[in-house]
């Protein structure tokens, strides 16, 4: 597949995990990439190991502070003239029960995972509308399909993304703008290390679910295939993603099964 050849691709959360692998994958297909995250040094190291290194651009971005997103988007447009693909991948997870999680932490997770996410989309969208083309890819989570232990705020933020982007894909079809919602399950990334606990600090533990999960490479291969096919939705993972189908067709059995699953 060479559908990224000559395209301009913006990836958030590009400094590690799924985001980093997306960057590597599309760079090998000949894309020009805007790598965004908070850690500019990490982004530069990744960029310098990509093919066609001069095509790419590192742009520091903090999803919790979205007021400068229109300005950042203008920088990208001034440099490249267009944005063909936006991978909204950046985000923050959680490892705490709802009762012990302060509203401040709920708001922080929602700000990063939902408001920061859609703020960047809203900044990019006018340029895609003008071009009458574009593809927005949203990395949600299987927790965006059902709630789970220690994930109340995280799950809520991912459910919110589904409502926003399903509406958006209907509205923007007339402008030839595609939306793909991706729902990864257990993927072998560092997401649990950086997840917030009840004190608002990093969980700092590589959970068993992540350690034994699908490889990032396999995850991104499946994601890119879904993008290539312009799918509206894709579930990515191993047997855990079957829970989505189970909840839909046999909810009583779903609740029996899900409560026996390990939270970490």
Main attributes?
seven-stranded parallel beta sheet; alpha/beta; Rossmann fold
Main sheet?
A: 7 strands, parallel
Query: What series of H and E elements makes up the topology?
Result: EHEHEHEHEHEHHHEHH
Query: Class, according to the CATH hierarchy?
Result: Alpha Beta
CATH superfamily: NAD(P)-binding Rossmann-like Domain
The averaged pLDDT comes out at 96
Briefly note the CATH topology name. Rossmann fold
- Rg from alpha-carbon coordinates: 18 Å
How many individual β-strands?
7
Which consecutive residue ranges, at least 5 long each, have pLDDT under 50?
none
Give the overall shape: globular
Give the second-level CATH assignment, the architecture: 3-Layer(aba) Sandwich
């Amino acid at each position: 597949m060479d559908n990224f050849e000559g395209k301009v691709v913006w990836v958030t959360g590009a400094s590690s995990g799924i985001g980093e692998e997306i960057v590597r994958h599309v760079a090998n297909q000949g894309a020009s990439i805007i790598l965004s995250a908070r850690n500019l040094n990490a982004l530069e190291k990744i960029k310098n190991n990509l093919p066609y290194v001069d095509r790419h651009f590192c742009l520091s971005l903090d999803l919790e502070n979205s007021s400068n997103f229109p300005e950042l988007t203008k920088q990208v447009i001034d440099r490249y003239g267009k944005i063909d693909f936006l991978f909204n991948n950046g985000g923050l997870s959680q490892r705490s029960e709802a009762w012990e999680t302060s509203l401040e932490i709920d708001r922080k997770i929602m700000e990063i995972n939902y408001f920061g996410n859609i703020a960047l989309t809203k900044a990019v969208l006018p340029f895609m509308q003008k071009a009458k083309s574009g593809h927005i890819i949203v990395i949600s989570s299987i927790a965006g399909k059902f709630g789970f232990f220690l994930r109340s705020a995280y799950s809520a933020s991912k459910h919110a993304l589904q409502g926003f982007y399903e509406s958006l894909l209907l509205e923007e079809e007339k402008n030839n703008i595609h939306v793909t919602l991706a729902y990864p399950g257990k993927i072998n990334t560092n997401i649990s290390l950086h997840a917030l606990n009840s004190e608002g600090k990093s969980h700092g533990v590589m959970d068993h679910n992540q350690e034994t999960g699908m490889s990032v490479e396999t995850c991104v291969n499946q994601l890119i295939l879904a993008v290539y096919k312009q799918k509206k939705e894709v579930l990515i993972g191993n047997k855990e993603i079957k829970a989505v189908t189970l909840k839909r067709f046999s909810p009583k059995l779903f609740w029996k099964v899900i409560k026996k699953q390990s939270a970490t």
